[in-house]
Here is the input.
Amino acid sequence: MNTDFAGKTAEGIIEIADTGYGFVNLHDDRGPIYLSLSLIEWYSLNTGDTVRCTWRSPKEKERYRAAVDIENINGVRPLKIHEMDVEIYEDYYLYHLGDIIIKTDDWKRKGVDSVLGIGGDRRTKAPMLMNYMMNHPEILRGKHVFEPFAGAGPYGFLALKLGAKHCDLLDVNPRAIQFMNHTATLNDFDSTTYTIVQNDIETFQPLSSYDLIFANPPFVPTPPSLTGVLHSNGGGDGCRLTRILLSRLDNLLQPEGMAFIISLQIETVSGPLLVHDIDNLGLSRPVEMMRYSDCSVDFQLFVEKIMVGQPTQRDAIVSWHDDLQERYGAELKINWYIIHVGKKGFLRPECIITSFQEERYGKAYAPKRVNPEKRVQTLVDLEIFR
Here is the structure.
């Protein structure tokens, strides 16, 4: 007789097979619990991890009990992972995350004015910073939020859905303004709770300062000879617009306010480029730059991929690369960062570099080893030459 044990919990040590699936070994009379590939990838589980899982009894023709979900990993309760569905239409996507709908361009659309997507073309987990917001709605309730470089407005509109009092959304792209208006209508947001502004970060003047800023600025290092895409072209070293935002934070933020900024950084032997700018800006706020991966990618590989995609611009690309090496050194790499700018008032604020913080963002978002060439090719294909 097959008794249903769904919802029961058990704790044991993971062993992952070469085929990708695994088992939670409990050393009891009923044997191990099967661990699916999807759960292993979802929570970034490894052989030797101690987990507590909920499980169900075997179905017909199944040999083992099966894990349903993971409640604890090495003594730490994993953050809830919010799933995101996508509806694909002829020339746009609708992403569904919890109760919110975000309209973006099709990833494959070519054009300088393309609106950046927030996921791929299939069901997936929410972007890391959005998942963080959904796990911590308390930081958003009743707050005034600003999303510059908003694109489709995913962070600002999600903040509203999670209880923010008001949100300003800013972008220079007229197409992005249209998409944000569509998203506001799709979600039936009260028009008094948000303001959509077509302007640039350098000249924008808010009516009042903000409690929270969520920003995903254009950050791809782009040779001056290439037009690039509005949502990705970060200037020659990728930092142009992020520098402008950082220079304005003391005016844009309330003293107790905070900012979260996504960035791709060129790294020198002494660290990411922005470290030197932050030191020179004289911010009266602490800054933490969290490296998304401990494995940076050689910048030379990035440059080579650009030249393959733009063979007629080879001389200009080589000149741009030579200039960067002359300014910053020959050993350049690239890596992704989350920049967290804290509250004002510290006498000697510092800029510190940290590794990925699993306790904040969740083990499921821990960086995985990915072929560097594949990472760079994806970046070049999707961000520069669309």
